[in-house]
């Protein structure tokens, strides 16, 4: 594997899920691989899980880890080509990425959607600029439109918990007062579509994800319809793709409650976290035995460890 920015960088999803489970079973088996290699983790936005799980995974593989909160610690970066830099941004990505590539063997980047202009966000300028100018492999730690480390951890978790070959997996929108990115929902849909699981997306009218991402997935505008017979409920808020970045509704009837979970086939509850208790999901759901959110977050280590391992093996040849 050269980069891990989106699904196009992955040759075999099933193999990668297996590799993640192998990392979990034997975390230190590849400690030699990262010897004298450095990974730089760059955060344009806040993080708890991604930051710590990626650092831990890299350390399990014997790497040195450098972390920078680009958003607050570094120079403001310009991504546009050909501009006269006479405003607030002091450094261009062309130099910044190339310089970081001198210090790091792998660079991992978090840069959320700005939710102002759909075309701008879906161009993935930040991650693609790093790919273009850094000269080293790039890992996506949640970009404007994708969160592949999360989706790989989600598939690992479903693999661990499924009780039938082809479970029914539901991605459901849940209410939030802030406009949030589509990245987690987009990615989850794309990755689940790579499996042979039954997949349904439930969201209010106006919240359909990009047609290029949800492809032929079944989309319903009723949570009750989607939840019937479900084995996994994956909740997430996202702002509208159609009316880009807008909060069109905060309808509390879309909150995940024990009554809704009772419509399912004893489904496990999943969420990428952080989650706002009481707003998106009832406390009773998050505290229930069927909640898989902590196991899911734990699996973030093994998903990114599988990715870093494959990239390190690619560097060696
Ligand atoms: N990495 C996990 C999700 C990150 C982000 N959530 C948030 O920003 C939640 C913030 C809040 O609830 O205030 C998102 O939706 O993409
Ligand atoms: N799920 C996730 O990516 O969490 P953080 O935003 O805390 O890294």
UniProtKB/TrEMBL annotation:
InterPro entries tied to this protein: ArgF'-like, Asp/Orn_carbamoyltranf_P-bd, Asp/Orn_carbamoylTrfase, Asp/Orn_carbamoylTrfase_sf, Asp_carbamoyltransf_Asp/Orn-bd
Residue sites binding N(2)-succinyl-L-ornithine per the record: 142, 176, 236, 276
One of the record's GO molecular function terms: amino acid binding
EC category name: transferase
Keyword Phosphoprotein among UniProt keywords: no
Catalytic activity annotation: N(2)-succinyl-L-ornithine + carbamoyl phosphate = N(2)-succinyl-L-citrulline + phosphate + H(+)
Designated name of the protein: N-succinylornithine carbamoyltransferase
Originating species: Lacihabitans soyangensis
Name of the gene encoding the protein in the UniProt record: argF'
């Amino acid at each position: 594997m050269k980069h891990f920015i989106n699904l196009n960088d992955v040759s075999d999803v099933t193999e990668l899920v297996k590799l993640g489970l192998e990392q979990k079973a034997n975390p230190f088996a590849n400690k030699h691989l990262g010897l004298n290699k450095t990974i730089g983790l760059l955060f344009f936005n806040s993080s708890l899980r991604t930051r710590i799980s990626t650092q831990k995974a890299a350390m399990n593989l014997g790497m040195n880890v450098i972390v920078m909160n680009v958003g607050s610690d570094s120079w403001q970066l310009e991504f546009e080509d050909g501009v006269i830099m006479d405003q607030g941004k002091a450094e261009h990505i062309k130099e910044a990425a190339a310089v970081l590539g001198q210090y790091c063997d792998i660079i991992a980047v978090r840069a959320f959607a700005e939710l102002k202009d759909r075309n701008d966000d879906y161009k993935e300028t930040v991650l693609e600029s790093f790919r273009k100018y850094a000269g080293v492999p790039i890992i996506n730690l949640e970009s404007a439109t994708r969160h592949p480390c999360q989706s790989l951890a989600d598939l690992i978790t479903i693999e661990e918990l499924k009780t039938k070959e082809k479970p029914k997996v539901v991605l459901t929108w849940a209410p939030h007062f802030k406009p949030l990115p589509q990245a987690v929902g987009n990615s989850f849909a794309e990755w689940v579509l790579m499996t042979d699981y039954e997949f349904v997306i439930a969201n209010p009218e106006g919240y359909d994800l990009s047609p290029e991402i949800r492809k032929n997935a079944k989309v319903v505008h009723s949570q009750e319809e989607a939840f019937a017979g479900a084995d996994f409920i994956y909740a997430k808020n996202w702002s509208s793709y159609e009316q880009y970045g807008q909060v069109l509704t905060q309808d509390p009837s879309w909150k995940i409650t024990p009554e809704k979970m009772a419509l399912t086939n004893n489904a496990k509850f999943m969420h990428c976290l952080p989650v706002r208790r009481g707003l998106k999901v009832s406390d009773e759901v998050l505290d229930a035995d069927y909640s898989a959110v902590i196991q899911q977050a734990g699996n973030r280590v093994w998903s990114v460890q599988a990715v870093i391992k494959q990239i390190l093996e690619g560097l060696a040849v």
